[in-house]
Here is the input.
Amino acid sequence: MESHAEFLRRVTLDADLIAALREDYKTAPITEAEKVMLDYVVQLTRDAVKITPEYHDRMREAGFDDTAILQITLIASWFNYINRVADALGVGRNF
Here is the structure.
């Protein structure tokens, strides 16, 4: 999470936004579409098998087309994958 927060801080230059997102994205000052996207990404991260067509419907209602949904899914999945690889190899940890 630290590396993602640092990247976002550098891109947005908004430390308050980063702090609010860390605390709870549902109350952070982001758009409703961004909250819907993060709801989807959280579920994808926790248990992707429980993603139902309703998740995709909510994404579309929030303004995301099928290409955007695919891109969001691929990016979130890649981050999940690479984080697990790094964790398994102890990257960034002192043993």
